[in-house]
Design a protein that fits this description.
The chain is of the alpha+beta class and 697 residues long. It contains 13 helices and 37 strands. Helix 3 packs across helix 13 and helix 7 crosses helix 8. The two termini are 16 Å apart.
């Protein structure tokens, strides 16, 4: 019997069948009308959304509110708990760069960060940008950061005030705090200063939200006069622009999910033409870090599946001149790297756990920064300066609050700079973190990170929130998360399934969860649920699954494959209309996504493979568990109509009594609400759903 009582009639989306024939196969989509024909324009001006579509989305929100009305007090309690764990007036430890050190801070009650600087060796704080002031009067506001020029006179900052991820760039005089007249529209959110601080480079998004062009802007001139530096003709590639730490080069970084290409523009000749490093070659990935007379190149060249580090002379870094520095070791995935005057630094993961490695560039001697907990997370921040022996890194675990360290690469001394404060209190000894291995259907071992209170009964009675993602090679860290403590304190086991499709166990782990092997991702997640049930950490009747974006696809797939093993499912901005989206090459992310999922336009095999698991296409008559789908109206990554269509079809097909709910944020996009406390309200809502479904209110 459902725990949701006395619900009003659920919205029933009208059917307006549209047929589509590809590769001789015809499908009918009853809810295709929910996709706005003018979606490109609507992302920039949400008020022009078709009234019928808006009415349906608002009706869904009304139904959702009725279903969750009895959780309002719980939501407020959860929000208060989560907010109480945040130091409201928190401030970062400033990072030294030249005559200043730069950082961010929040004010009590503030939603947005502010940016500041102080003299390098201490002194009075100067506020460079007040995020709360800039956000005043806006329903949605997200800062893209502040990047100071090399001479520290100006700052380049950006904002998105619709959630559509079209960012506006502004230039600020850092001495006066005043913005100059320059306004650069429709950008990707960042830029790269020329060393003299008089011009910068930026990426423009086209009408299909693709970063297709890089321009050079002279401060004080209109955007219409900006010089086109590079145009990417292939819609399947992302593009960004950045600068080297030594200010010698502007990098043009072009890539999809499996192929890289870099072009270099010397800052000594800003009007010159970019020069190619290594032409794109399907499957070849590489990235650059300047090390004075050489570039250090992180790459999978020569079959280095888990990546290696090579070097090439700065004056001629073509592919033929690359030589090995840090060789490839199977099973040791090198994630990122940075070069400094005397040291080479990289972050790697082996056996599912990270460590930071340091190499003396003169002697070749290497050593590691590592920790001994069963499951933990490391973050490598590096340094803002090239000529330094000190880098910065962070450490945390599911039970240990974040700790920030400076590390001297010569003396190997760690200096603790800051430990994350939990104002309402936190005793790590009250909780247990474990890393267990769930056997998959093909014998692979799936790591699962667990957090629970030490007094939680492990007899199958505990509710469980099981989180998963499993795509794009993204590994989910076992890091400290104050929010999930609200679940643990209510007797939940909080679990993260490190399933295939991520790189949690190396590059092969990623490859074994993509393209023709995508089903492994879904089976791994179900295997994690099976293991937690068998070992009595929880039981099928108590598991609420959660995933977002590509993890939302996971939620849709497991809902179709094993609905009986989950009490409830939370799918945030879920990529569930996989086949239709991958067949529509006008959508922002479709061509760049083909290397991850396949191209069903060109390949019948890819079409049939996607058709076999696409959540929307495989909804059928069966009893589905309670489902909560979350969408954002201006989301350019997973468009609002994906969850809207999915929910409409689920509600039509389910033979069970559990409700299918959808919440659309009418003022936000893919990342949800933009303010730090607004975001907590959304998390409190999701957790209230999980707690209600688990019967623990």
């Amino acid at each position: 019997m459902s725990i949701f009582k006395n619900l009003p009639p659920a919205p029933a989306a009208p059917k307006k069948p549209v047929t589509d024939t590809r590769h001789g196969i015809t499908r009918t989509d009853d809810y295709a009308w929910l996709r706005a024909d003018n979606w490109q324009a609507m992302f920039k001006d949400p008020t022009i959304l078709d009234p019928e579509i808006r009415q349906h989305l608002e009706a869904e929100n009304t139904y959702m509110k009725a279903a969750m009305a009895d959780t309002e007090a719980l939501q407020k309690t959860l929000f208060a708990e989560m907010k109480g764990r945040i130091k409201e007036d928190d401030s970062s430890v400033p990072m030294k760069d030249g005559p200043f050190a730069y950082g961010t801070f929040y004010v009590t009650g503030g939603e947005q960060p502010s940016f500041f600087r102080i003299p390098r060796d201490g002194g009075e704080r100067s506020v460079l940008l007040d995020g709360d002031k800039e956000a005043e009067g806006k329903a949605y506001f997200r800062l893209g950061g502040v990047d100071h020029s090399t001479d520290h006179s100006r700052g380049l900052w950006s904002y998105d005030d619709k959630g559509s991820e079209y960012y506006t760039l502004r230039v600020r005089d850092l001495a006066t705090g005043e913005d100059l007249a320059d306004v650069i529209e429709n950008t990707g959110g960042g830029g790269a200063w020329a060393p003299d601080g008089k011009s910068f480079f930026y990426t423009v998004l086209d009408d299909n939200h693709r970063p297709s062009k890089i321009f050079h802007h002279i401060v004080g001139t209109p955007q219409s006069d900006d010089r086109l530096v590079y145009e990417e003709e292939d819609p399947g590639f992302f593009m960004g622009v950045g600068g080297s730490m030594l200010d010698d080069f502007i990098y043009i970084d072009i890539h999809d999910h499996e192929t890289s290409e870099y072009w270099l523009l010397r800052t000594s000749d800003l009007l010159g033409k970019p020069k190619l490093v290594a032409a794109r070659e399907t499957g070849l990935e590489y990235s650059l870090s300047e090390g004075g007379d050489v570039f250090y190149i992180l790459t999978n060249a020569d079959g280095a599946k888990d990546f290696k580090i090579m070097q090439a002379p700065v004056d001629n870094p073509i592919r033929e001149n690359w030589t090995d520095v840090v060789p490839h070791t199977a099973g040791r995935l090198i994630i990122s790297h940075g070069a400094y005057a005397r040291h080479l630094v990289w972050l790697e993961r082996e056996g599912g756990l990270p460590q930071i490695k340091i190499r003396d560039r003169r002697t070749g001697e290497e050593h590691a920064i590592a920790f001994a907990e069963e499951a933990f997370s490391l973050g490598l921040q590096g340094a803002a300066e090239y000529d330094t022996d000190v880098i910065r890194f962070s450490y945390s675990s599911m039970t240990t609050p974040n700790q920030l360290y400076d590390y001297n690469m010569v003396t190997r001394e760690r200096t603790l700079l800051k430990t994350q404060e939990v104002p309402s209190g936190h005793n790590p000894g009250d909780y247990i973190t474990r890393r267990v291995m769930a056997p998959a259907s093909d014998g692979a071992e799936v790591p699962v990170t667990l957090l629970y209170r030490k007094d939680t009964p492990l007899d199958g009675s505990a509710p469980c929130l099981l989180y998963g993602y499993g795509a794009y090679g993204i590994a989910i860290p076992a890091s400290f998360n104050t929010n999930c403590l609200s679940l643990a304190d209510r007797g939940f086991v909080y679990a993260i399934a490190h399933i295939r499709g991520g790189k949690d166990k190396g590059f092969q782990w990623y490859e074994d969860g993509k393209m023709e092997k995508k089903a492994n991702t879904f089976k791994d997640f179900i295997a994690a649920a099976d293991y937690l049930n068998q070992q009595k950490f929880t039981s099928y009747a108590n598991i609420v699954a959660e995933g977002g974006s590509a993890g939302g696809m996971l939620m849709g797939a497991i809902a179709n494959m094993a609905p009986e093993k989950f009490k409830g499912i939370i799918a945030a901005v879920p990529f569930v209309d996989v086949l239709n989206t991958m067949l529509d090459d006008s959508l922002p992310l479709t061509p760049p996504e083909w290397p991850e999922w396949g191209n069903p336009i060109a390949s019948k095999e890819a079409y049939e493979r996607m058709a076999a698991y696409s959540p929307y296409d495989n909804v059928s008559e069966k009893p589905y568990p309670a489902i909560l789908a979350l969408g954002g109206l201006t989301d350019p990554r997973v468009t609002y109509w994906e969850p809207a269509k999915w929910v409409a079809k689920l509600r039509e097909k389910t033979t069970g009594s559990e409700p299918i709910l959808m919440k659309t944020n009418m003022d936000a996009g893919h990342g949800g609400a933009s303010g730090r406390f607004q975001r907590l309200e959304e998390i409190a809502f999701e957790y209230a759903f999980a707690i209600k479904v688990a019967g623990k209110m």
